[in-house]
């Protein structure tokens, strides 16, 4: 007879492992199914995010920023360093060590909270049964009162540039995080978050980076004033970004990859040593449920869920990248918490209007809430407050004075509707706006909050003052 749990979670990434831990905290007998094998050949928790996504990419972004700063930026501080040398092997070893520390940490959290890790591939069967195919091919079946599907996402493939990470010429994000030499030239198909972040890593380490983006609008989800500033800064840094450039074919040669693309000026051809394909991600749901389970899918492979992440099947939920909404680790984690609490009989809540977004380039880009273009399209009256980092003392001292903070507030109620930042530590600064919006704060609330001096947070304060023409450290217009 199949073993029965209160909850079985399929997937051990940020959505799945957090859901499992929260379920266990609430007194539910919980198991988590995860099949990931890491770079050492060992089973690992953490999914894409911790193993080949968020964590290794941010580690390399930090390392490459340190290298670039010492090599090209620190002389302005009166510090002169000779003989700077890149040790890429050590940089990669550090990345791998951090990944192991964090993924092993999840395993320890499972043990501490009493979550059972079932290693292998999980598939939903009828009547809330879950089939687990182990790494040795042995198949087992368990039952659950509740099942949470959290199998994440994977890169989208394009026929014009077939990925082969093992060969290492045309790669996806996983391959681009594991180059063992700095490519002289790196082509990037897609100017989204992943393409820009990984392009930034290798650009700072010495690659000539050429980005080809099929659409005309740069970072269309970002407030367009911020996006225009970002494009200008990235190009100034040396990234060769082509908008409206559709890749039509690639050919591997002895010298690298020949890339053919088309734009408004006609057909073009470039040669790059390596090519990164980063045109988005798709839900990882191809083998997540047997047909007899009756699980309902929506468009493009997403699992159909309601506002509380419940599927069409009683007791079956889905969270994270496999459901609607942004593919963000923190969004998936909070959905996992919400579902765990609902299963345990608690209310469970997630405010989708206050999910922060971050692009970890340099400068960083972060935002929450509505963009100016969205407010215009929806006919919502608004006021703008902004403040440049060029007028912020801490940013000047850090030599990171590019960019700005932009706040959007309702023209009649003054409620904060959006916050958009490009500049130093934008990923941290935006959290103040997230908290403020969660409590339905107004721009006046931020304006009357004391901010320490000198700090980057003063730019948030000044932007809030600017909404009503009261900024103190810039000329109000």
From TrEMBL:
Cofactors, names only: FAD
Superkingdom of origin organism: Bacteria
Occurrences of domain Pyridine nucleotide-disulphide oxidoreductase dimerisation (ranges): 355-464
InterPro entries the UniProt entry points to: Class-I_Pyr_Nuc-Dis_Oxidored (IPR050151), FAD/NAD-bd_sf (IPR036188), FAD/NAD-binding_dom (IPR023753), FAD/NAD-linked_Rdtase_dimer_sf (IPR016156), Lipoamide_DH (IPR006258), Pyr_nuc-diS_OxRdtase (IPR001100), Pyr_nucl-diS_OxRdtase_dimer (IPR004099), Pyr_OxRdtase_I_AS (IPR012999)
EC number: 1.8.1.4
Domain FAD/NAD(P)-binding: 5-336
Entry annotated with the keyword Flavoprotein: yes
Coiled coil residues, start to end: none
Nucleotide-binding in keyword set: yes
SUPFAM superfamilies: FAD/NAD(P)-binding domain, FAD/NAD-linked reductases, dimerisation (C-terminal) domain
Annotated disulfide bonds: 49-54
GO cellular component: cytoplasm
Descriptive protein name: Dihydrolipoyl dehydrogenase
Highest classification ranks of the organism: Bacteria, Pseudomonadati, Pseudomonadota, Gammaproteobacteria, Candidatus Competibacteraceae
């Amino acid at each position: 007879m199949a073993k029965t749990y209160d909850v079985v979670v399929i997937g051990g990434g940020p959505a799945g492992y957090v859901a499992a831990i929260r379920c266990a905290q609430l007194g539910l007998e919980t198991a988590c199914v995860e099949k990931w094998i890491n770079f050492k050949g060992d089973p690992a928790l953490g999914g894409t995010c911790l193993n080949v996504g968020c964590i290794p990419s941010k580690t390399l972004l930090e390392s490459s920023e340190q290298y670039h700063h010492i090599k090209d930026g620190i002389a302005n501080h009166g510090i002169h360093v000779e003989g700077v040398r890149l040790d890429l092997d050590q940089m990669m070893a550090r990345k791998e060590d951090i990944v192991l520390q964090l993924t092993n940490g999840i395993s320890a959290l499972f043990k501490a909270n009493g979550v059972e890790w079932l290693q292998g591939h999980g598939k939903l069967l009828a009547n809330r049964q879950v089939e687990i195919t182990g790494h040795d091919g042995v198949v087992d079946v368990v039952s659950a009162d509740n099942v949470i599907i959290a199998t994440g996402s994977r890169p989208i493939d394009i026929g014009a540039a077939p990925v082969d990470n093992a060969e290492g010429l045309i790669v996806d994000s996983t391959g681009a995080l594991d180059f063992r030499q700095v490519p002289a030239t790196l082509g990037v198909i897609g100017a989204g978050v992943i393409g820009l972040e990984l392009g930034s890593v290798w650009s700072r380490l010495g690659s000539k980076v050429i980005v080809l983006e099929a659409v005309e609008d740069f970072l269309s989800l970002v407030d367009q004033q911020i996006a225009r500033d970002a494009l200008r800064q990235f190009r100034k840094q040396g990234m060769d970004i082509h908008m409206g450039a559709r890749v039509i074919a690639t050919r591997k040669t002895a010298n690298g990859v020949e890339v053919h693309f088309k734009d408004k000026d006609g057909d073009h051809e470039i040669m790059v040593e390596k090519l990164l394909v980063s045109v988005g991600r798709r839900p990882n749901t191809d083998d997540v449920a047997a047909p007899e389970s009756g699980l309902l899918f929506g468009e493009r492979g997403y699992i159909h869920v309601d506002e509380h992440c419940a599927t069409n099947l009683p007791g079956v939920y889905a969270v994270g990248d496999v459901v609607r909404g942004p593919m963000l680790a923190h969004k998936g984690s909070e959905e996992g918490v919400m579902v765990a609490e609902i299963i345990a009989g608690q209310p469970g809540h997630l405010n989708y209007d206050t999910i922060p977004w971050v692009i970890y380039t340099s400068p960083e880009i972060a935002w929450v809430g509505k963009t100016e273009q969205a407010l215009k399209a929806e006919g919502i009256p608004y006021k703008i407050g902004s403040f440049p980092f060029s007028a912020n003392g801490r940013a000047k001292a850090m030599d990171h004075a590019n960019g700005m903070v932009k706040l959007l507030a309702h023209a009649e109620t003054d409620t904060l509707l959006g916050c958009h930042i490009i500049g130093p530590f934008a990923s941290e600064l935006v959290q103040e706006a997230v908290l403020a919006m969660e409590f339905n704060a107004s721009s006046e609330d931020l304006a009357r909050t004391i901010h320490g001096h000198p700090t980057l947070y003063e730019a948030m304060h000044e932007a809030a003052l600017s909404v009503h023409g009261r900024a103190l450290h810039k000329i109000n217009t």
